[in-house]
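Batch job 17 of 40 flagged for manual review because the log was empty.
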Amino acid sequence: MGKVILCAGRKAEKPYVIKTSGVRIFTIEELCYCLRSELDMLDESVIDREMALFIKDELGFPERGELLEQLILTRSDLKSRLVVIFCTGDYYDESEIRQICRELDELSGMSPVGRRKRRADRYLAGGFYAEALKEYRGIMASPESASLEKTEYGNILHNLGVIYIRSGRYDLAVDMFREAYEHNDSEESLKCYFYSLKLGHRENDYIKEAARLLDNGEFLNHLEEGLENAISRVEAGGGLDQLDRLKVLYQQGRTSEFDRLADEMITVLKTTYRASAGEG
């Protein structure tokens, strides 16, 4: 489920399967967490009578189950149904439930493709790159993609570039960032475009594109300074050999080893910084 969930209520003998994800649920805490994490995928059909009976009979909350069943029979909205469920367990407090309701209000004004992009963005922010990639590709392939504004389309391309560059797939990242910049005119996309050219050792393209896209050398100087500062920080921490190793791992597509070494380097840098800052 993504995190440790402490469950104090009854554990069901027969699990309930969430329709949107196929996740098997055994406790009220798991149900609350799963519904919260999949908020942007929910509609009234997900909170159905079968779920109400599960809460009533399997989890041992007869009053809450009956109340939810009544809301379903009277075709109450999604927010009302979710509030009953979230108030059944103690997994979320009142302030958290209010925040969930605000998010539901925000989602209600979104188009289906907007909700899908929100879900993809959440996967990306959480580091679930395969899931994010699948969602973004699905958006691009869907008829609804025609409804996206030019900037929104460019931002999706930018996020695809982020996924590719973090996976060491620089050629794909270059294409994504270039096209993203053509759509969103974002300085961040332009910067990532040049970084991906550098990381892919495409020096000739780097020079040609700088001449084509940049009116002066100021932006390019900032890029070069950023790269040099990153390397200098690693050198100061005695990690130049590790940096070379990271480049090799990226080029070979050995992402799990890359992530492990990167985490070790970050830990060393944090320790060095805290020591120099006098932190405990």
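Reviewer: the log was empty due to a logging misconfiguration, but the result itself is present. The beta strands are 16-17, 24-25. Unflagging and moving on to job 18.
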